[in-house]
Amino acid sequence: MDEERITMLIKEDQWMMDILKCAKSLDLPDWWICAGFVRSKIWDTLHHFEERTPIPDIDIIYFDPTTIDKLEEKRLEERLKSLNPTIQWSVKNEARMHMKSNVAPYTSSVDAISKFPETATALGVKLDEEDHVILTAPWGIDDVVNLVVKPKPLFTETKERVEIYENRITKRNWKSIWGKLEVFHST
Questions:
Q1: Domain extents for the chain?
Q2: Class at the top of the CATH hierarchy for domain 3-140
Q3: Could you tell me the pTM of the whole model?
Q4: How far is it, in rounded angstroms, from Cα 19 to Cα 109?
């Protein structure tokens, strides 16, 4: 599977395209839908699942340093709920999220995606002006398409970061859903 195949899988999935169009309608700066939205589609396909694996929410990120009010994110979630109330929407402005993650400020949404704990989760998609699916994968797609879950180097450097990664692996328990995964630990 390559990047072209991934974008084609998404383009052929009406549910995913409807969600992308809802997100695009907000006209947010530097917006992406990331993480499980993309990763789960790839893993479901590679596991030959007939039905989509449910995901807890749709993570939309954007980058707007001019308005870092958390209430704005909630207002955006409400707008999305009015467009599609069946979806659990999560909207985050990455211009403020570095404070929560206790890291240096991000320079863009793609920079923020590059800091996600696992290489297989550091993915995002959006629609361009002509509604073509655009994929970003700052750490590449090798791990996600080879069913490998491993920490990025940042999450092996300190005890605090190791715990973040290990807690995510335990909480998400992805191997119980996608049995072919190979999960690496940071310790």
A1: 3-140
A2: alpha beta
A3: 0.93
A4: 19
